[in-house]
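Case 481 in the screening queue. Each case pairs one protein sequence with one candidate compound; here the compound is NAP. For every case the pipeline is the same: read the inputs, emit a complex structure as tokens, and attach any notable structural observations.

Predict complex for case 481.
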Amino acid sequence: MQAGQLFIGGTWHAPVSGETYATINPATEEETARIAKGDERDIDLAVQAARKAFDSGPWPKMSASERGRMVWKLGDLIMGNLDELARLESLCTGKTLFDSAKVEIPFAAEVFRYYAGWATKIHGETLALREGAFTMTLREPIGVVGAIVPWNFPFLLASWKIAPALAAGNTVVLKPASLTPLTALKFAELCQEAGLPEGVFNVVTGPGSRVGMALVRDPRVDKIAFTGSTEVGKGIMREAAGTLKRLSLELGGKSPNIVFADADMEAAVKGAMTGIFYNKGEVCAAGSRLFLEERIHDEFTAKLADRVKGLKVGDPMDKSTRMGPVVSAQQMETVLGYIEAGKKEGARLVAGGARARVGNGKGYFLEPTIFDQVSNQMRIAREEIFGPVLSVIPFRSVEDGIAAGNATTYGLAAAVWTRDVSKALRAARAIRAGTVWVNAYNLFDAALPFGGFKESGFGRELGAPGLEPYTEVKTVWVDLS
Ligand code: NAP
Ligand code: MG
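Case 481 output:
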């Protein structure tokens, strides 16, 4: 990887500004790398390269099977470089090396392999509508895709965009989050190694308000695929109107995890833990509102509080660690601010609530935190905290639980826990969210679409629906008379 450089048109370049910035290891507060500070001028060059690769390069014209093989090869190269990619991801994000090496990076490789198979299965239809005409549809790539991704699953969320975009014959400019660009840059190196034609994949690092916005505004970019906060998503939607760009937006969430009294309690307690503390709660689908049926509330919260004591916070590179530091000092302050708000609004703190001291006292470590007796009206229940803070909210009846779960502007994910199949399925239908887990939390598969209802965004990633936003449908009408 080239320190302080951008990957444009198949080669490494210094940014036009000539400037760099530092990324920080959240576990030690030390500098990890110097990163190029790109701006509008670098986006101009990257979009030009991606445009050229699409308009006159070999990529969109290549046979589908050859393109599929190339996408598969990228999946192989990701697995071949698993250790390094996982280490880079953990260095920037603070997530455990175990999560990077066993979950995130292998899943990203799987996404490339899954969409590699799709390359030869993208097709239109023939519609025999009338005697005097031959009518059909073609499914074509959209063109240049601008992908903008956040810092919580930097490489995985990039793969959800890059793999289907490439399989369908598009070219890509990726803008990683400023805090976590290392795996994107390493992946550029793998694209070189794979022999991906120049300009098909480009990476520009730098501040979102400049680099990201320049991508959104550029009339030569055909589509923006964005994952990030609802606030920035809304700004992107407003700006994209200028060129009527295609958009897919995967935004925030405040997902309800609803436990009915007849649930398998041990399983539900474990599920509630993973739901909120996996990846330090920096998960868009995090089960941050835990709804407990009144009858089981006391026993359940006691078990939860007990289990939290065993959750080891510490060095992400240490095998026994279950929760690393949050991503940055700023994120730590935001989360601590929400903890104060929870206390002020009268929620009962049953676990955590402060910084966790690890080693020499450096690092952005937080205790896993649980508030009980939260109401849906409190800020900690309404706003996305994006940290290890759980709000427990009691409810009386099945209908109340579902209604309270739905009482949010978000609709990304939800879970219900019950042994009653019909109750589970009725709840699954009634919940307004893009994913509903039953007796599970945080399960994903490359073949299953993921995305939001309401202000959690629109468009789906993964599965067949995750490919569609990277294609345009064209109708061809041949007159036979
Ligand atoms: P963010 O501030 O919205 O940033 C996301 C990306 O957008 C980053 O690459 C950022 O660049 C860039 N960006 C920032 N301002 C921009 C602008 N004005 N124009 C264009 N791009 C801009 O989100 P974040 O703080 O990285 O991540 C946390 C949020 O992401 C949470 O709200 C979470 O729910 C959401 N999220 C959603 C999903 C999902 O699948 N629905 C998944 C993960 C995360 P910089 O890093 O340079 O600011
Ligand atoms: Mg941000």
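Case 481 observations:
- The chain has a mean pLDDT of 98.
- The longest helix spans residues 97-118.
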